């Protein structure tokens, strides 16, 4: 997941997982700082998809590339497919929390909107995708749950040229892909500390 803070003071979570990476690079004029939660920088993800281990973890990218069929699969059996992805959370999501997710997934166009990110990742030629990557100049914090079943922890640290002002990569060894849920207190503190303006000397 990814989180960014703009000059308006708001912070938001993105189901596309890459909104903060893209916002930080494509609209630097409105971004002071960027925080990323278990979302690989596009170049690192592209590199990772050349390795069998990450390909196995990212199998769903290729399923999502199939038009129409994917939407039918994820809707089936009361969203069983998406619910399965949430099973790694520790502590487990409560039924009430799952209901909130189902309500969000059920909004018109929401499923296709989420899936289209993965479709674009698979369909865009690697050279074209790399050519579109712009560096993020804002200070950037990466928070990474090392028990992520879908993204290897070797993807956590972005290339220096892509994120020259990387503050640090904070690894949380016992957290899953849902690091903001698994380690809510620690992640909140990390984000609060990172986004709190430093008083002048």
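^ structure tokens above, recovered residues below v
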């Amino acid at each position: 997941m990814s989180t960014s803070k703009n000059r308006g003071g708001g912070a938001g979570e993105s189901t596309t997982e890459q909104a903060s990476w893209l916002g930080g690079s494509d609209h630097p004029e409105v971004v002071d700082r960027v925080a990323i939660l278990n979302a690989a920088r596009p170049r690192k993800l592209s590199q990772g998809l050349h390795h069998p281990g990450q390909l196995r973890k990212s199998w769903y990218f290729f399923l999502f590339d199939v038009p129409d069929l994917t939407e039918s699969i994820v809707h089936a059996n009361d969203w069983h497919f998406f619910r399965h992805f949430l099973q790694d959370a520790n502590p487990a999501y409560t039924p009430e929390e799952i209901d909130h997710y189902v309500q969000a997934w059920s909004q018109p166009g929401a499923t296709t909107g989420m899936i289209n990110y993965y479709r674009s990742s698979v369909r865009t030629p690697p050279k074209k995708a790399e050519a579109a990557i712009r560096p993020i100049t804002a200070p950037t914090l990466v928070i990474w749950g090392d028990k992520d079943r879908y993204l290897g922890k070797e993807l956590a640290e972005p290339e220096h040229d892509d994120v020259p002002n990387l503050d640090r990569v904070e690894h949380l060894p016992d957290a899953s892909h849902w690091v903001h849920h698994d380690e809510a207190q620690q992640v909140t503190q990390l984000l609060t500390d990172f986004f709190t303006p430093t008083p002048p000397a």
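The longest strand covers residues 31-37.
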